[in-house]
Amino acid sequence: MGLDLYAGPLTRYYAHNWKTAAQQMAEANGWGYHRITPQGTDERAEEIGADQIQADVEQWRDALLEAISPKDGAPDEPWPESNEKPYYTDKPDWDAFGALLLYTAAEVQREPFPLQVEKNWDFTAYPLMQQMLEDTERVRSWSLLLGATWWLPIDRPLYFKAPNPAGSDTLIATTGLLRMELEHINALGWQADEETIRSWTESEGYPADTGTDASDPAGDMQEHTTYDTESLAKYAFSILWRAVEFSQREQVPILLDY
Q1: 10 Å Cβ neighbour count for 191?
Q2: pTM here?
Q3: Among candidates 50, 14, 11, which has minimal Cα distance to 257?
Q4: Cys-Cys link to 26, which of 33, 43, 89, 99 (CB 3.0-4.6 A)?
């Protein structure tokens, strides 16, 4: 089960009117691609229709904002919903997303982290992660480490658990909190400028699997089974950074899709 990131209108997300990075690459190269999620195939939303999806999402949004708006002060503004507004997507996958969480846990605790991780590794099993999660005082301000999968376009830092529009209990946070977390991670370790951070989606991440040369007539692919931890962490960080910038500019939520 892979991991994609989507920043865009919830209407467009639930209407399946978007394409993952893998889908876009497949189409650009003329490859076949059929996406199946744990919830089923992409075709079921067509039976409902985008107009009804938007109405349901807006009803959910308004009820949620009413519930979380501060009692004293201005209410949170509703973000616009649409089936046409632009979206941003990329594919950190679990290995890179886990590397970012492990790197964060290490930097917060000022502990060393493993220089390499195995492909399809379980980041939750690392003592560094378990130690961080057991420190309730330290971890409670981190939506990323606590398992948030949604961030709404609200500036004030906040997280809470609530049903999403499909009725599933979800740990939801705000883009204001996510930006604070990303800035804190960067300050703890890399201290990189924004241009450098954005470049990591191209310069860091997964090494390309390569084909063999003429000396190997079988022509098998040479597949990488270990990755550079910090390079993966930078890659996932850059994707999240770009998503926050897009979310705050376009006023759209961010979701982890898997």
Answers
A1: 8
A2: 0.88
A3: 14
A4: 33
Strands 88-90 and 159-163 turn out to be unpaired
Task: Find residue 118's DSSP bridge partners.
Answer: 226
> What does the alpha-carbon distance between residue 53 and residue 63 come to, in Å, rounded to a whole number?
16
Q: What is the DSSP letter of 119?
A: T
Tokens of 125: 């099993």
Whether the Cβ atoms of residue 90 and residue 21 lie closer than 8 Å to each other: yes
Q: What is the predicted pLDDT for the residue at 120?
A: 94
Please, which residues bridge with residue 170 across strands? 162
Residue matched to tokens 């270990």? 226
CA 36 vs. chain centroid, Å, equals 18
CA distance 4 to 257: 5
160 contact partners, CB below 8 Å, separation of at least 6: 68, 171, 172, 173
pLDDT digits (tens, 9 = 90+) for 125-136: 999 999 999 999
